[in-house]
Amino acid sequence: MNAAMRFHLSVFAFSLLCNPVLTHAQEKPTKDISAVYAEGKINGSVYRNEYFGLTLTAQPGQFTQGGFISSEGKRARLVDVENNSTSFEDKFEIAVLADSLAANPSVHEPEQYARAVRHQFEKQGMETEQAESPVKVAGLPFVQAVLKVNEGGSSHYRAIYTTFLNGYILSLDVSAAMPEKIAQIVTRTVRFETKGK
């Protein structure tokens, strides 16, 4: 995923801060983003973040060196997975992002956040395939939006899934050949052990 796409994912995560879960999420104290980032550990093909109760399985892909904390210190790209298969149908990317709710006071629900990110993606030339809609990811409520990306004569799809959890806007940025593949990747790779702290 290129730098422009990563920037726009952060913008998208900001827009998803507007979920009713926000009210619940703000009741809980949050750890500093550096501490949340540090809680992420990779063991073989599994990433685990205790703060969010999140497990991400990379296989058949592999983890990249894409994780970082923003210079403002309020958001982070926690982890990236890429599957650079020789088969276009099997290629995918998934990234996990966290953005402080406190740093985004105008965002009140995940749908608002997702919409803002989707509009940013549209400005980059992506086409909306599916506007914001509720979805469960490993038992937690998320809002998703799916876009079509046309590059170099071919196309693929990109989806953003966002929720509020433990004082953060938590987002999954997923790209794959088809929208159905995105849903399969999320179901196969993402687990939550808790419903928040």
Please write out the topology:
Blueprint: H1 3-15, H2 21-27, H3 33-38, E1 40-43, E2 46-49, E3 54-57, E4 62-63, E5 68-69, E6 75-83, E7 92-100, H4 110-123, E8 127-137, E9 140-151, E10 154-165, E11 168-176, H5 179-189, E12 190-192
Helix pairs in contact: 1-4
What distinguishing features does this structure have?
197 residues, alpha+beta, Protein Transport Mog1p, Chain A, eight-stranded antiparallel sheet, four-stranded antiparallel sheet, 26% helix, 41% strand, disordered N terminus
Which regions are unreliable across 5 or more consecutive residues at pLDDT < 50?
2-27
- Radius of gyration, whole Å: 15 Å
What gross morphology would you assign? globular
What is the fold named in CATH at topology level?
Protein Transport Mog1p, Chain A
Give the proportion of residues in helices. 25-40%
CATH class: Alpha Beta
